[in-house]
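Bit of a strange request maybe. I'm writing a small parser for structure token strings and I need a real example to test against, not something I typed by hand. Could someone generate the tokens for this chain?
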Amino acid sequence: MPIKSLPLSARSSKPLAPSLEQWRLRIYLLMLVGDLILVQCAFSLAGAVYQQAWPAEFVRIEAQLLLPVFATITLYQSAYSINSLSDAKYAIRRGLLALLVSSALLIFVTFYTKSTASFSRGMFTLPLLFIAIGMVGLRIFTIRVIRRTSGPSVTNVLLIEDGGPEVNLRNALRIPRSTLCLPTTKGRNFRFTR
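Reply from user aminoacidic:
Good idea to test on real output. This should exercise your parser:
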């Protein structure tokens, strides 16, 4: 008997746990926007440190050239994924790898187009260092805030206990089978289909 065939009175109108999908999408978007702001701020700060004055136009141009490449590579490198919300090392590795790949790609393109004469190596390396440091801090801060506000898990796991061997799943929602109106499965295989 599939769950869809239960009468409306037997179905719960309230979910067991709220869906975390929309929440995760918001966090991914905040991480992406934070990274892009970090790139702009790092180039501005590096320009101020390197030139002892507020950065010139070419600093903004370098940042604006890196932004779309960096955003694309971070999306392809899974820098914004479920693992990046729960594992700081994974999030840092993916973010730094995306920074390395995007900066190498930008350097290759500027070399290929012979525009490296207008690019200062110091003015490109210093912001990359600032971005890397800021990215590590941003990832650690984000994961700490997530753990403090929503707990250690960023996914909902439902475990229906049916008298079998003990399953050790941390942070799982556990429901005894007897509280659900499910058919018996003794002696036959039963599969829920949607």
